[in-house]
């Protein structure tokens, strides 16, 4: 019989790409990780790793077993929860990862009603960029992760992760009060080609959505500042130091600036909830219902 502990070791070697990476995550020594892999090979009766003088890689059998390991670990966790009488939606713990601007309105709307309905569920909230927190979801440290995907920068979720679509959120143009472009309902980015811009660092790349869209509009924006904190962006625009593209969640309720729609190529992002479909946490499905309801209310409020 395969050891769940050794399957977890194999899964981390596959995810991190090395024995050293797995050792750091599991808080084991590299030699202990190597020993557990050898024992797992004995249990499986097939070679799982190819060891070179300076490298290690998984065999085809090792990769296949590693992709199944999280499913096995989730099933074991479900059985343990059943044995401990934890399979209740109104108790236990729910671990939620989210990006900052989803914490302005979307997540509070969902959590306020969910927490009122299930006060005994212990909520553990972790803020961070989706690409930073995705490994935590994959290895089971998070139950759900609120993610976004820019239409101009699409991505695919890792194997074993599913996305529930919540809403599409437009990118809005934020201008200092009195800016001439604010007199029209919709503006093209190219009309502001000579303006200084406040933009982000990009999603797991050095290129922001503004820069991707500007290329399609035929110009290269002059970047004055980069920040992933929309309060900083709005403050700089408010002070007259530049203009910016800000998702509607980040621009909601902004004062001292002008906000208008942008005519341009696919200037929106998709918001979703990423989960492992094999996750046995009984509170998760209930929370997803509340998250979908909150997204629906936001869509209705913004039209």
Automatic annotation (TrEMBL):
Keywords from the named record: DNA-binding, Transcription, Transcription regulation
SUPFAM superfamilies: Periplasmic binding protein-like II, Winged helix' DNA-binding domain
Signal peptide positions (record): none
CDD domains tied to this protein: PBP2_LTTR_like_6
Domain (HTH lysR-type): residue spans on this chain: 1-59
Family designation: Belongs to the LysR transcriptional regulatory family.
UniProt-recorded name of the protein: LysR family transcriptional regulator
Organism: Sphaerisporangium flaviroseum
């Amino acid at each position: 019989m395969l050891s769940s502990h050794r399957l977890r070791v194999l899964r981390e070697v596959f995810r991190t790409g090395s024995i050293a990476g797995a050792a750091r995550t599991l808080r084991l020594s590299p030699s202990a990780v190597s020993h557990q892999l050898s024992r797992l090979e004995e249990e499986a009766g097939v070679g799982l790793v190819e060891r070179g003088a300076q490298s290690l890689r998984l065999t085809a059998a090792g990769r296949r077993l590693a992709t199944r390991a999280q499913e096995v670990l989730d099933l074991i966790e479900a059985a343990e929860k059943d044995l401990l009488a934890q399979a209740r939606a109104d108790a236990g713990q729910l671990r939620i990862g989210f990006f900052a601007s989803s914490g302005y309105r979307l997540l509070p709307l969902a959590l306020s009603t969910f927490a009122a309905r299930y006060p005994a569920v212990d909520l553990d909230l972790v803020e961070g960029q989706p690409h930073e927190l995705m490994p935590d979801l994959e290895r089971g440290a998070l139950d759900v992760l609120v993610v976004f995907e820019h239409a101009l920068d699409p991505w695919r979720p890792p194997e074993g992760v599913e996305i529930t679509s919540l809403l599409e959120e437009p990118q809005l143009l934020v201008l200092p009060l009195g800016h001439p472009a604010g007199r029209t309902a919709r503006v093209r980015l190219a009309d502001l080609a000579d303006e200084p811009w406040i933009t982000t660092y990009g999603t797991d790349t050095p290129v922001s959505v503004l820069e991707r869209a500007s290329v399609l509009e035929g110009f290269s924006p002059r970047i004055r500042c980069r920040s992933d904190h929309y309060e900083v962006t709005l403050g700089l625009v408010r002070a007259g130091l530049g203009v910016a593209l800000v998702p509607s969640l980040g621009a909601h309720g902004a004062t001292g600036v002008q906000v208008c729609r942008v005519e341009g190529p696919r200037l929106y992002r998709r918001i979703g909830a990423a989960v492992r479909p094999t996750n046995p946490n009984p509170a998760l499905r209930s929370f997803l219902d509340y998250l979908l309801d909150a997204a629906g209310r936001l869509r209705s409020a913004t039209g």
